[in-house]
Design goal:
Blueprint (H helix, E strand, L loop, with lengths): L2 H8 L3 E8 L5 H12 L3 H4 L2 E9 L2 E8 L8 H18 L3
Parallel strand pairs: 1-2
Antiparallel strand pairs: 2-3
C-alpha cells in the first residue's frame, strides 16, 4: 500500500506522501500501529505524524515527525510503545 492509500484509511496520522516500502507480511502489524496512532489522546495525536514506513536491514522502521514539547509528559512514550510493538510484531511474524 502507498502512503496515500493508508492516509485514506487512517487519516492525518500518516502523511499522504509517506514512503511505504515493506514486505506484505508486515502490513497487518502496520495496520495495527496506524490504528493505535488514531487511538492516541488528541493531545498527543495532534503533534505526531508518520512520514515513512520501510524495511531497514530486515527491521521495520516507522519514521515519525513529532513535537514532543507540545505533548503531555508521557506523549512520546505512547508513540514509542506503538512503534516498538509494531517492530516486534513484524520481526517475529506476529500479526
Amino acid at each position: 500500500m502507498t502512503g496515500g492509500e493508508l492516509n485514506s484509511l487512517y487519516g492525518s496520522v500518516i502523511f499522504p506522501g509517506a514512503m511505504v516500502s515493506v514486505p506484505a507480511a508486515w502490513m497487518p502489524a502496520i495496520h495495527v500501529a496506524l490504528a493505535s496512532f488514531c487511538d492516541l489522546p488528541p493531545s498527543v495525536r495532534a503533534f505526531v505524524i508518520v512520514v515513512g514506513i520501510r524495511d531497514s536491514g530486515g527491521h521495520l522502521l516507522i519514521e515519525v515527525a513529532a513535537v514532543p514539547s507540545a505533548m503531555p509528559v508521557d506523549g512520546m512514550a505512547l508513540v514509542e510503545t506503538i512503534v516498538r510493538t509494531a517492530r516486534e510484531a513484524a520481526g517475529m511474524g506476529i500479526h
